[in-house]
Here is the input.
Amino acid sequence: MIRIDNVSKWFGPMQVLADCSTSVDRGEVVVVCGPSGSGKSTLLKCINGLERVQKGTIVVNGVEVTGRRADLTRLRARLGMVFQHFELYPHMTALDNVCLAQQKVLKRSREEAVAKAMALLKRVGVEEQAHKYPSQLSGGQQQRVAIARGLAMDPVAMLFDEPTSALDPEMINEVLEVMVELAQEGMTMVVVTHEMGFARKVADRVVFMDEGRIVEDAPTEAFFGAPRSERARLFLSKILNHV
Amino acid sequence: MSAFDLSVITENLPFLWEGLQLSLLLTALAVLGGIVLGTVLALVRLSGFAPLALLAASYVNLIRSMPLILVIFWFYFLVPLVIGRPVGGLYSALIALVLFEAAYYSEIIRAGIQAVPRGNIWAGKATGLNYWQIQRHIVLPQAFRHMLPVLLTQAIILFQDTSLVFVVSLRDFMTATSIVAQKEGRLVEMYTFAAIVYFVICFAASILVRRLKGGTPQ
Here is the structure.
């Protein structure tokens, strides 16, 4: 489904990704974790071409994202993405946020788009907020609308970029629950997160990154049971033992 | 002759009203044209396509370094040369006003576009929207909402500036007032009246601006 081969990227003189290789199979849930600044979010943005890579290849659903003439808009339409800061369009209601790309990209009729949007808003538990504007919603509600916006495109995979790290603690669970449900329904997911509880519960694999490199790429149990690298061990002990 | 005679105003009201209509018409059309052309200029400057962006930037800087009255004169004499026949004061003044205002509007609009959060554009891209769809549905609506007060303020300035069209023999409100004042020998009454009319219109508009500023969400 997603194959990343020897990807490197620089921001000016600074290398942010170094020879990263991994892959995600259909229906697989992969959690990407690591200290901040390790390149996790950048790697995720490279998958749908929001960031270009300078070396290596990324192939998604048979399309080479890194190719010169890649039809990025078509590819992106099939990849849902959820951002740390939700990024809902503030001048549109929750409903219109979910409808916009359905109508403009997939050319669905207004009725079709609304029906789909309402069903999804209901699924993530915010159907009563459908006609409210983002500023009238809590962070957790906004993020669930953003998930619905991604799902509305019938994506082949969903990308999550630290979806809970901008949320107040009491709202984290309502978002995670939606994500767990998605994972259990067989959605292919790549999730950048520090929520190790979520990783343990639904991830098939954990990718650990540090300083732009993929240091560890292991099945979930193996990763939590006996991380091979010293860095991953250190990271886990810090993140799991905090009081 | 010495008394403050208001009848001169009431007697010439239809004539003055005609002048005011022209002022308002010029303002409305120049604002409209200026915003459309200004938006295009702003998008070109932000497009990242260097040759075109440079061209647009040069245009904006050139126009903003000129007095409006010069631009009006210039088009009055230039446009007939280009198209080979005289076009009259109204059209040349209108073209000059639109081209002049577009330079100012483009700067306002450019700032408004840049204030739209970058993440919103990512979100649009991530759902497969193309550049124009993102501008049309995500960036510009937000930008214009934020810019509305500034755009209106610019329109107020433009309304005052339309008084300069007298140089191409158009009879706007200010010119009409002058004509009446000279003809009837009632300078004090007429110019006081003109000042009051300009004040009422511009002050009312500025109250509207303040309302809009207070009422914008976020």
Summary: Chain B has one domain: 15-175. The first helix of chain B runs from residue 7 to 11. Chain B touches chain A through 20 residues (CB under 8 Å).
